[in-house]
């Protein structure tokens, strides 16, 4: 098993005719994902390879069962694309786009909660259940099917961690990039709960970074609500306060979001924290 | 994005939030006229984007126009936490009976816009949040539902007590919230929100931060941008599509992805080195970006080695390799380059670099050890 997506997930790609959307739609098909349709406003009736393109999410939904949608629409239009997916009640909305205004995502977050849907991202690499499906932009070949869950606020850092896990033959059930923005649809706790409930996940890696207090909340959740072991990693230990480190969410502000507080919270919860990604496999092995 | 107090007050005014009369000058000889017009007894305040200007001596009361000139002279050109004061604001000195604090922030945890109010203004709210968090009254506002006015009045009554003051504060909060949402702010703050006579509250200071991602919607806000918020290198990097932050060390770092870039800096430190910068070349891997990244890093004379750490996903290792080769062809790089390339098209990237005599690592820890030792 895996969480959220598997070989039966039918996927829609919003922004499928764009540069990133078309490239990654093809890549996802190659990696075994069921891409059933795409959306680009004004391009109804066209197709990308064998994938039919529709003018709206609703139109696509008329012809296909859609379990998840992945959004590659440019930042200025991404908020509206997310809203469109929510209005059409797509159960799982994944936004890859970086640079979406925070208040737009706040509105989307409220709408998603109201309708009982799930949103992942924005500003995330998506998620992958190796051997089953990939909805996102991660390089497929570094992954290996297995029983480790990976949750991360980052993209390439996740690849680094997965690369090290795979090198040690520690395969992954699902790897989920939750996104580097201040407002994201699925946080660490949501993902941890899913992994806790997944019978085929044996242990979890939580990759956090400076900014916000989600890692602290995750530590508390692991301590009080989880039976499965976890290992943590925090990036940005050398980052100066008040400076945004690339991700909109990666900033130490108002005395909150410091790496020390996060490392301490993990350690207090009995979650070992790796100093560098290549220490993660050994730390996790000791926990399993 | 941050703006100065005087700019924030101009925005307040547009939204009907009462602020004092103000004059902004960058030439001390103009202080006299401004002070005279305001009756002589004025406050002279440094306009800087960093906090803590009061403690640094950047805010002074002047009893007469002579003193105003004197203070303006002293404050203009002053260095406050690395920022040179280029403008001062002159405003009538208010008779402060009591100080409060009002602030709106976007709270990541609750996904609400949270109003914070305290009975003690002028304080450092960040310090108070740690030392005595119960003194901060919080009122969450759901952006989709808007303000529940009767609940707001109830909360503000606790703080301001007198009806006249509660009414003013309620109006101010409503307007601040409108400003916050319409202009995509991430923080709006009045500190102190002061009682200047028995029945009047006034915003004696103003601070607004904006969401950088929403600036494209607001030309007026974008036009308030202050170059002093970023270093020259940071501004240039932005133009090239790079995300860059200067640090104190001597090892230049070029990485793809913000999380990995931070982790790379951390590992440099872990092995006893000092990172000179955070630099994320971003997702697409135009070779020009690598060239520009190296150019910006080499402006720093302290640099003794450069580490290039790429984990190819969208970024292709062969594009990065071409960028490195382009850079070595065009500029004279006298410091060692340590290159680590893994991921999409890594074989091609390695081949290109090895042909040119570069060695390429595939283990990050090894690469960091090498760069620290070089």
| Multimer state | heterodimer
Helix content of chain B: 25-40%
Report the biggest beta sheet of chain A as strand number plus sense, adding barrel if it closes: 7 strands, mixed
Tally of strands of chain B: 18
Strands across the major sheet of chain A, in which order? Answer: 3-4-2-1-5-6-7
Shape of chain B from CA axes? elongated
Beta content of chain B comes to 25-35%
Question: Largest interface by residue count?
Answer: A-B, 61 and 55 residues
Query: What is the structural class of chain A?
Result: alpha/beta
What is the radius of gyration of chain A computed over CA atoms, rounded to a whole number of angstroms? 18 Å
Detail the poorly predicted runs of chain B.
none
| Straight-line distance between termini of chain B | 38 Å
Question: What secondary-structure arrangement, pairings included, does this model have?
Answer:
The complex is a heterodimer of chains A (288) and B (374).
Chain A: E1 10-14, H1 19-30, E2 34-39, E3 47-48, E4 51-54, H2 57-63, E5 68-71, H3 75-87, E6 92-95, H4 102-115, E7 118-120, E8 126-129, E9 133-136, E10 145-152, H5 156-167, E11 172-177, H6 188-197, E12 203-209, H7 214-225, E13 230-235, H8 259-268, E14 273-274, H9 280-287
Parallel strand pairs in A: 1-2, 1-5, 2-4, 5-6, 6-7, 10-11, 10-12, 12-13, 13-14
Antiparallel strand pairs in A: 3-4, 8-9, 8-11
Chain B: H1 5-14, E1 23-25, H2 31-37, E2 42-46, E3 59-62, H3 65-75, E4 79-80, E5 83-84, E6 88-92, E7 98-107, E8 112-118, H4 125-131, E9 137-141, H5 149-160, H6 163-182, E10 185-197, E11 200-203, E12 207-210, H7 219-222, H8 232-239, E13 243-246, E14 251-255, H9 258-270, E15 277-280, H10 287-298, E16 305-312, H11 317-330, E17 337-343, H12 346-355, E18 360-361, H13 364-373
Parallel strand pairs in B: 14-16, 16-17, 17-18
Antiparallel strand pairs in B: 1-6, 2-3, 2-6, 4-5, 7-8, 7-10, 8-9, 10-11, 10-12, 13-15
